[in-house]
Input
Amino acid sequence: YQRRVRGPTERNFSLGRSFVGFLRPCRMNGFVARLSFFFSLFLLAFSAPVSYSYCQAGLPAYQPTPSNLKMKMVQVFTRHGDRTPASVLPVENVTYTCKSNELMSLESTSVARDGHYRQKVYISNNAFSQNIWKGNCKPGQLSDVGITQHHVMGQTLREIYVGKFGFLDQSFDPKALFIRSTDVWRTIQSAEANLLGLYPPDSRPPGTIIDINVDPASVTDGYPNTDPCPRLAQLQKKIQTSAAWVQREAALSNVIKKIRYATRTTGVSYFDQVDRLADNLHCRVCTKLSLPCQADVCVSQDDTTQLFKLTDWQSFAITNGTEVSKLNAGLLIQDAITLFQNVIDNKSSLKYVMFSGHDTTLAALLGAFQIHDGFWVPYASNFILEYFEDQQQQYYVRVLYNGQLKKAPFCSDIFCPYKEFFTYMFNNIFIQNYQKECF
Output
C-alpha cells in the first residue's frame, strides 16, 4: 500500500445550481414502479433486525435486486475495527497487547523491505508506563481483533460484489477503485486489512501498489471537523447544554459520580464529557478486561450498561438536526455524489469507493440520511451506498447499514430515485457557501 496525502487541489465542490440540470426526469413507468414497490416490501420483510453489539457490527450482506437494475457504483464507508482506548485513565490497571505494533502498515513499505527504517511502538519501563499505560500498544491503536474484523469484512465484500453481483473484477483493477482514509493509524490499517480481504495478494498483478488517499486532519471532511467550521462547534455546544442533554446526565449523576471516583477522573477536565469515560470502558468490556476500581469502589456491569445507554442517546442527539447534519456530513456526501456523477457523465471508470473513518464519520452520515438507530456506531461498522441504472437510464440509490437495508424518509422507495436523493441532499445537506455557513 502507498499512503498518499490528498491535497486540496484534488477536491471538487463545483456542484452549483446548474448541476441540477443533468438530472433526467425520474418518473418510473407503471410496471417498473409496481415491480420496485413489491420488491422493496419483500426486502424489508426479510431484512431482519439484528441485536446490537458495540464490540462487533453486523457484516455487509447481499441483498438481491430486481433484474431490470444494473449496478453502477458501490461506496463503502467504514468505522475502524476494535482498538485500545483513545481516552486513557489517570491509572490504567489493565494491559493491552498488540502483535501488529511494528509497522505502520500491514504490508511493509518499500523502505522497510529494503531494510532501512520502520516504525515500532516503544513504551519505556518507567513510572508513567507502570501506572498509566501497560503493554505494547499505543492509545487508540487498532487491535489484532480489529484487524481481523476488517479482513473478514473485506472477504465478505468480495463475496458480495465480486461473487454474487459479479460487479467487481476478480483481479484488482486500480482504475476501478478509489480508497480514502483519515490520517490516523487505525483507520489506515483498517483500510489495508479490508483490502487484503477484498483483493488478496493472489488477485493482484505483481508489483501492485494501492494508493490510500489520506486527508490532512486540518481540512478533512471525513468526520465532523470543528477546526475549519466554528459554527459546527457552536451547534455542538448548544446541543450539549440543552435541557434534554443536561437532564439525562443529571438523572444518572450518582452513577457518573461513582464511575469518576473508581476511574480517578473526578476533577479531570478531559473527562467532563462522559462519552470519554464510555470510550475507555467500552474497550475494557470488548476485550473482557476488568473494570476500574479505587479502594473498595468498583465500576459494575450495571454501571456500564446505564452509562452506555446515555452515551448511545448522546451520539444520536449530536447528529440530529438539518443544520448540524449539513456541517457534519455535507462535504463528505458532496464528495460521494460527485464521484458517482462522474460515472454517469462517462468521466470516470470508478466502480468501488471506500472511506475508512470513525464512529463520528458514520454517525454523521446516519444523521444526514435520517436513519440513525439511536446506538453508538459499533466497531467495524459499514455504511454502503449502492447505485443502480434501469433500462430507461434512470438511476437509483440503495442504502445499507451493517448489513441491513435502510430507507431514508425523504425517499419514496428502498431503491431511492436518484433525482429525489440528489434534490434532498442539494437543498438540505450540501454546503453551498462555506464562509457564510461555517462562520
Remarks:
- The chain has 14 helices and 13 strands.
